[in-house]
Specification:
Layout: H1 2-16, H2 21-26, E1 35-38, H3 49-66, H4 72-77, H5 80-100, H6 103-106, H7 112-120, E2 122-128, E3 136-143, E4 150-153, E5 156-159, H8 166-169, E6 175-177, E7 183-185, H9 190-203, E8 231-232, E9 241-247, E10 262-264, E11 274-280, E12 291-292, E13 295-298
Parallel strand pairs: 1-13, 5-10, 8-12
Antiparallel strand pairs: 2-3, 4-11, 5-7, 6-7, 9-11
Length: 299
């Protein structure tokens, strides 16, 4: 019995260590390729914020139109010009479908993964990692990811550096630390899950949701929200994606916030919502696993 328990704990540690901050820190000297050097905080951008915002708006708008029949409650509270914009976009989308597919298919609603593929040209999903004992990883399961593309998003509750996160952090391997000390808890289980759902309910304005909770379930409305499962690179598995911080601008369409997989722990109108996206460092082919580096040194 003790032997079985020990083997179980050892197996869990082998999976956990790839995201365990002290273990990675102690092994940096033996694994230099996992370290990312940044000259200045302001230059920690692989692509510009505009190049991040563009694809996100494109994807979220496509998801919104794909599920247009269920958006009636939201449409009632939107300004008339915004309603007309979506009605015009929907008409254009339907015309394109008529040209490409038969009428029976036109009436169907595509799965979110299909919408992502039609919009970005690729699909990412969780699967067993190619790293031994690393648990789950993220793979490009369909299509092709060009260099500089937004590949994924890191979901979770966003904590300012002065906010309490002790109990949520116990045994939690999914906490991401931003350069300025902001933390994102991407755990989809336990107390972290409860906290996220609570914050989501707090911030909802009538039918308008300020964030997406479906990344906590098996039926994700935004299939990009799985960046917390991307494993750290190693000496023989170089990083093909990197993390980039992105603050959601004030002009972000309120009707599309339902697809943002992040929410602040405390309600604060003054601070923009912090998100973290993963950017492709090179072209990534179908079947490849995503690998990133968790550490950034600012010198």
């Amino acid at each position: 019995m003790p032997g079985r328990l020990l083997r179980g704990l050892l197996q869990r540690w082998r999976r956990y260590k790839y995201r365990f901050v002290p273990w990675i820190a102690l092994n940096l000297s033996h694994n230099p390729r996992t370290l990312r050097y940044v000259p200045e905080e302001s230059k920690d951008k692989v692509i510009s914020d505009e190049e991040v915002l563009g694809p996100l708006l494109k994807v979220f708008q496509a998801l919104f139109l794909n599920d247009f029949t269920r958006q009636s409650d939201i449409l009632t509270v939107l300004p008339e010009p915004v309603k007309l914009k979506y009605q015009d976009l929907l008409a254009v989308q339907r015309q394109r479908v008529k040209l490409l597919e038969n009428r029976r298919q036109e009436q169907s609603v595509f799965k979110p993964e299909e919408v992502i593929y039609k919009t970005l040209g690729f699909v990412v999903a969780r699967a067993t990692s190619s790293l031994i004992s690393a648990g789950k990883g993220v793979f490009v399961t369909k299509g092709f990811v060009p260099k500089g593309s937004v590949v994924s998003m890191y979901p979770g509750t966003v904590y300012q550096k002065y906010e309490p996160i002790f109990f949520q952090s116990i045994g939690n391997s999914f906490i991401f630390r931003c350069l300025d000390g902001i933390l994102i808890d991407g755990n989809d289980k336990g107390i972290s899950k409860v906290v996220y759902r609570s914050c989501n309910g707090r911030d909802q304005l009538g039918p308008l949701k300020m964030s997406d909770t479906t990344w906590l379930t098996a039926e994700m409305h935004n299939p990009l929200a799985l960046g917390q499962y991307v494993n750290n690179c190693s000496n023989d598995r170089a990083a093909n994606v990197c993390y980039q911080e992105f603050d959601v601008p004030a002009v972000f369409p309120v009707e599309l916030k339902q697809y943002l997989p992040n929410i602040p722990y405390s309600y604060d109108k003054q601070s923009p919502l912090r998100c973290v996206v993963l950017i492709a460092l090179r072209d990534i082919k179908q079947g490849e696993e995503l690998f990133s580096n968790y550490y950034t040194i600012v010198s």
